[in-house]
Amino acid sequence: MQSSAMKHAVLSMDVEDWYHLEYFRGKACDREYSMLDGLDRYLDALSRRNLPSSFFVLGDQAQKLKSRLRDLADGGHDVASHGWGHRRPLEMEPEVFTEELLRCRAELESIMGKPCLGFRAPCFSLDRTRLDRVREAGFKYDSSRIGFSEHPLYGDLDLSGFRQASDGVYSDDDFYEFEVSSQAVGKKQIPISGGGYLRIFPWALTKALLRRYLPEHSLYILYLHPFEMSERANPVYPQGTPALTRLRFATGRAGVRDKLNRLIDYLAEHGYAFTTFERLRNLHMDSRPEKTL
Ligand SMILES: [Zn+2]
């Protein structure tokens, strides 16, 4: 039996290509070279255990992934929005942000033939003003909050007026915020949810962090990107790409598929049930004491 007291894991992917990454922005990238094959490699890993996932899709990638997105939506996965072209919401005037939200939502809904309920901001760059815009645009959940303020790109998302529905889950009426997982180590918060960390940290370190995180929490969220799962070679980096950026992009890519399988096994062994944000929201709505009919 499922209940909101169970331990849940949500595996998610932000569906964007390598050249959408913040550190390649504005650079002359070869956009003909795609690493979106990583989406299929990710689906291979999920199908091993028949797991659902939440996908946050960029509007400007939706047309070329049309039939794939339909299959995902029909197959019980969430197809949600990651904005249009990966511009950071905090860089946009709220009105412009709203236009982008509506444009992406309409695009995804016309492809899926069903409502697009969720949003995740590029680079987790969201503040309260813009979160309210997400709600006003008709979305029912957001997953842009991360307890990791040392990263300069991550905004600080104020949730006053929300109630904590369960670990990492906040609600205000029928709108939900799912906080991306991080683990306190000393005074630092390590974002153990990130694909980049899964890639770069040795599995033994990830496992050590999870060993501390899992007993204290009932929600674990992972987010990955197609380029991390791609089997294709590294792209030709745009001119002037610093050595550190190249390293950061490429490190651990070959091993991440294996680590994802290990992570899935580890979560399952620790009693985590795999779900999507949409299902988790429904579960909470069904068990709300103040539920009105
Ligand atoms: Zn992104």
Concise summary:
With 293 residues, the chain is α/β, with parallel strands linked by helices.
Radius of gyration: 18 Å
Task: Provide the list of bound ligands, each named once.
Answer: zinc ion
Number of helices: 11
Count of folded domains? 1
Name the beta content range. 15-25%
Compile the SSE list and pairings.
Layout: E1 8-15, H1 37-49, E2 54-57, H2 59-62, H3 66-74, E3 78-81, H4 94-112, E4 118-119, H5 128-136, E5 141-146, E6 163-166, E7 169-172, E8 175-180, E9 183-185, E10 188-190, H6 195-200, H7 203-213, E11 219-224, H8 226-229, H9 243-250, H10 256-269, E12 273-275, H11 277-286
Q: Your description of this structure?
A:
- The chain is of the alpha/beta class.
- It has a single domain (8-286), classed as Alpha-Beta Barrel (TIM Barrel).
- The protein is built from eleven helices and twelve strands.
- It has helices spanning 37-49, 59-62, 66-74, 94-112, 128-136, 195-200, 203-213, 226-229, 243-250, 256-269, 277-286, and strands at residues 8-15, 54-57, 78-81, 118-119, 141-146, 163-166, 169-172, 175-180, 183-185, 188-190, 219-224, 273-275.
- Strands 1, 2, 3, 11 and 12 form a five-stranded parallel β-sheet that branches. The protein has a five-stranded mixed β-sheet with strand order 4-5-8-7-6, with helices on both faces.
- Strand 4 (118-119), helix 5 (128-136) and strand 5 form a beta-alpha-beta unit.
- The protein starts with 7 loop residues before the first strand and ends in a 7-residue tail after the last helix.
